[in-house]
Amino acid sequence: MRLRHRRPLVATGLGGALAAALLAGTVLAGTTPARAATLFADDFADGNHNGWSASGGSWRVAAVDGDPALTQSGASADARVRAGQTTWADYTVSARVRPGGFGPGGSAALAARAQGSTAYYYLALGGDGTLTLGLRDAATVRPLASTALAVATGTWYGLRLTVSGSTLTGAVDGAATLTASDGTYRTGQVGLVSRYAAASFDDVTVVTAPGGPDPTVSPTPTVSPTPGPTTPTPTPTVPPTTAPPTADPPAPPAGQPDGWASVPGLGVGTTTGGAGGPVVTVRDAAGFLDYIARPGPYVIQVAGTITLPTGSSDGMHDVTSDKTIVGLGDDATLAGGGLTIGLPVDDDVTAPPADAVHNVIIRNLHLTGATDDLINIQMFSHHIWIDHNSFSDGDDGAVDIKRGSDHVTVSWNHFFDHTKTLLLGHDEDAGAQDTGRLRVTYHHNFFDRSDQRNPRVRFSAMTHVYNNYYYDNSYGVASTYDAAVLMENNYFYSVNNPGRVVFSGDQGRIVERGNILVDCNHAIETRGTVPEPRQFYGYRLDPAADVPTVVPAGAGAGKLG
What start and end residues bound the annotated signal peptide (predicted)? Predict the structure, then answer.
């Protein structure tokens, strides 16, 4: 990652275009850091992009205009790479950026203080003729400052993005600067973003920001010799702080579960989560992990971003019975690790144990970047409600339900930047645990380019899939091993296979009614009969034609009303 000498960049004649700053931004004269220490540099001369973590797209180092550059070749992906340390706070990241072509809404950008692949500040060259300084939080892309700029494909631009405290500044070709103020992200990595655009990047450099501290080496602590054996003083256990240092957003409305999560069974009348227990607010991993593991009911309110540890159990963390986990405001995030709702796996257990985890509600959260599943429900867990969350960028499943779990509703969630979305039924050998169970309702979810398993079903006694919006997926629902699936009033746009029974393994059953298919390559495959859900619970269907409007407007975190 060494820097090579480059010919000087030629300014692209920004002229008066940058004089009209929009939104909250202001155009200022460009500045040069008074003192800076280099934290990171990469000119891709070694022919690879080792050290960069990719999410989406197709990244490779290739010769561009005679020099190696990191290139993302397609204009149909929301593609990002990240590098550096998550603890970096005040710094300037600069790079040469060459847009190669834009899809609808496309842009090529630098990112700073990246908390993950979908949480960062950005300075973007837009295919719509704008230069924008903004913030991304999961699916929400929010401009903070913007101005008109004629962006030409095939042209190199020098971008510079500085984050110092709550002040953000962005410059193009050293000629002028946009500025804005925001305190959402305090630390994080740098990134290169090719959002529905083809682009090349080169000469990436990160230096400490003006006025920021120089990197220092912490002194080695001096340990005084102990004259004789001593008994260490025990460290007192400090309970997680629950009193907010500043005002938190108000708690969202409680809501009521519907679908299978509302149906009595297995000794539970309906799903209530932590209702009736203490209400606590957590802001860090220690407090969060403490409360989700405690016995008894708790309403656990998540404030801000909590990064969960990933060093053990593949980064999965157990949630006990009678818990409501709910985000405050519209930005509450669990990043890095995932949640397991269920006892440890035991293939010899083929009936619900008395201590099966039950009565859990998870709402209004962004869940992203897990090293395994984002949520895993297993081992006969029941009465679970997963509602109004945003799921992205997990290494395996978004919400996997398996090994005899039952009475689950997954509603009003947004799934994006994810491949293996919803697994229902672990594998073909799990029939002894799963047959007669895995009763799940999926409704009003937005499957936003989530490639497959939306859901992929085995053995389920009753899966009800209604009023979901499928957008640009390889397949929607797959039913195998005699699973019973009812698909009704869903909307499928550009989905190769909306519903399948001819799939890997023994065929399942699908009954479909009232669905709309647009630009799909295949019809919904049907087979057999399935139970009628109105025997078990009531529900109201939206017209399928309204789904593309209703679902994106209401699905995901921050949309509880």
Answer: 1-29
